[in-house]
Amino acid sequence: MTSPQPATAALQALVLATIEEMIPSDATAPNVQVDRSKAGFSSDFQTPAALQLAKVLRRSPRDIAADLAAKLTPRLGALAEAPDVSGPGFIGFRLSDDALQGYLEALSAAEHLGLEQAGGEHIVIDYSSPNVAKRMHVGHIRSTIIGDALARMGRALGYRVIADNHIGDWGTQFGQIIYAWDHWLDPAAYDSDPVGELQRIYIKFQTEAKEDASLMDAARAELAKLQAGDERNLALWKQFIAASRHVFDAVYDRLGVVFDVTNGESHYNDMLIPLVDKMHDEGRLIAIDGGALAVAFGDQDIERPKRMVVRKSDGAATYATTDLATVFYREQTWAPMRCIYVTDSRQKEHFQHVFSVVRDMDVTTDLQHVMFGIMSSPEGSLSTRAGNAIPLDELLDEATRRARASLEERLPADFDGDKDALAEMIGLGAVKYSDLSNNPASNIVFSWDKMLSFEGNTAPYLQYTSARTHSLLAKAAAAGLEPDGTTLKLADPLERDLLLHLMDFGPTVRAAFDQGKPNTLASWLYDVASKYHSWYAACPVLRSEDRELQISRLNLTRLAQRMLVRGLDLLGIGAPQRM
Predict the structure, then answer these.
(1) Hey, CA dihedral for 284, 287, 291, 297, is it positive or negative?
(2) CB distance 525 to 568 below 8 Å
(3) H helices of 309-441, where?
(4) If DSSP states are collapsed to H, E and C, what string results for 238-272?
């Protein structure tokens, strides 16, 4: 069954069509907005359109609103009752019971729960991107789970998402690690924990190099050998990548994060020289001190010239050159309509420059930078080099341990489910939601207690709500009562409010994806849980003596359950049936 047009979109279209008949032919219609009415209003939706028309029509907003409402009444048909006018000129709409029943029936029968489906266009999402030879730490959680949530939402909306993990597998650090390997490796430690040992010797190199500058020259020599294809250094480099990928994949499996491709920086090496040569031949580059080549941006400030270096004075390409090549590769390989980069806000200017260059070179892909704030410790920034970053697997272990302890206090003695699996689901859900419920742009100070909280606006609260719906539906089935997906009897304002909120699932997911803000969906899910609990407390289901009302309320419960489970899944969070 095809889902009806969202109520807000349907009302906006009707208001706009009416306005266009009321304004002069040479006037521009305002940007019509229809939103949910605030608590206390009898209407379901409101629009300030009449206030926006006051200057165009040179009349009082109240008069315009009355005229607009009168003209809208016959257009609304079975969708809504006659509009009302309130305040300085707001127009309110109250959906008809028939319209609400139609939305309930359509959403209950819809395979995608009202998620409007795209036509299968490709979208590339670049996220996570850890560095080889370093353990993933708590600072990697943001890019990983924000990117995963966007990938899940994109697929749910009908796009063909390519999740690309652009790992850091090339660059100066490998010369340093190879030098450290030759001088400080503990073979037994490497056999036990390869990436942990590689990280240890990398940190040791940073410490020793501060005291002995000659170590940097030695590391550069090892890097030059690697870049020249030295057999030994190349074999070590491949070994480092294989060990790191194994550790990364173990973390991703635990988080439920899946990538379609893992094209690290080295994947683009053969494309760099031809790309720079092409840019040079097209006159896009300028020579700067020492013979390096760069792209210049805008007006050049003598003190701080705006330049992006694409070839160093020694002939080596840069991080920026790799990102330019990556854009061209993705466009030629998948012809995506959009490419989304999920990185921290410190890379804002870098990607502005990259996007500017490729657009000037006729790239047509829509390039979007979803920036997130920095996660720091109370003592300052997190850094592998400084050795103060909490390993991500240790964070997940602690989350699971705390969840297990909480379950031991709450679960009945006769619980026969898998407590370990449930603790993992709840603990990891708490970690993800504590991040995803924040605006990505916000900076976060890491706190064990905040990240692993199970109280208030948290994943465990949403998971508990979902489990409660499962319990209610199971009890109803045992009593011979099943939701039918069509019956709707609105006996209390709270159930109308709950249904109106559930009708916003599709538009909410669309907005969260397009804006790169999973917190939009997280907030909506929290409101579902809060509204459901308020409704459940005021509107008895199994204790009601009205069978039609029972079925209606089971329909609301089933729809709320499906949207909670689906919404949590779009955030990468599981929804247990019992907890």
Answers:
(1) negative
(2) yes
(3) 319-334, 348-360, 392-410, 419-436
(4) HHHHHHHHHHHHHHHHHHCCCCCECCCHHHHHHHH
Structure tokens at 239: 């070994």
Render each residue's pLDDT in the chain as its tens digit; 579 residues. Answer: 456 689 999 999 999 999 999 999 888 888 999 999 998 889 999 999 999 999 899 999 999 999 999 999 999 999 999 999 999 999 999 999 999 999 999 999 998 998 999 999 999 999 999 999 999 988 889 999 999 999 999 999 999 999 999 999 999 999 999 999 999 999 999 999 999 999 999 999 999 999 999 999 999 999 999 988 999 999 999 999 999 999 999 999 999 999 999 999 999 999 999 999 999 999 999 998 788 999 987 665 555 667 899 998 888 889 999 999 999 999 999 999 999 999 999 999 999 999 999 999 999 999 999 999 987 766 655 555 555 568 899 889 999 999 999 888 888 888 888 999 999 999 999 999 999 999 999 988 877 777 677 778 999 999 999 999 999 999 999 999 999 999 999 999 999 999 999 999 999 999 999 999 999 999 999 999 999 999 999 999 999 999 999 999 999 999 999 999 999 999 999 999 988
Secondary-structure percent of the chain, ordered helix, strand, coil, rounded to 5:
55, 10, 35
Kindly state the tokens that stand for 130.
């850890």
Would you tell me which CATH number, out of the four given (3.30.1360.70, 3.10.350.10, 3.50.50.60, 3.90.550.10), belongs to the domain 7-95? 3.30.1360.70
Cα distances (angstroms) measured from residue 89 to each of 38, 82, 386, 396? 15, 15, 60, 53
Structure tokens at 481: 């009562």
Evaluate whether the domain defined by 122-270+326-381 bears CATH number 3.40.50.620. yes
Query: From CA 89, how far away is CA 30, in angstroms rounded?
Result: 15
Reference 352, options 333, 369, 328, 329; nearest CA is 369
Q: Which two tokens stand for residue 16?
A: 């706009």
Q: Are 95 and 44 in contact (CB under 8 A)?
A: yes
Quickly name the fold that domain 392-570 has: Isoleucyl-tRNA Synthetase; Domain 1 (1.10.730)
Q: 244: which residues sit within 8 A by CB, 6+ positions away?
A: 130, 132, 133, 134, 167, 169, 195, 198
Under 8 Å between Cβ of 97 and 311: no
CB 485 within 8 A of CB 437: no
Extract the tokens encoding 352: 């502005």
| Domain spans of the chain, in order of start | 7-95, 122-270+326-381, 392-570
> Would the CATH topology of 122-270+326-381 be identical to that of 392-570?
no
User: Tokens at residue 61, please?
Assistant: 């907003």
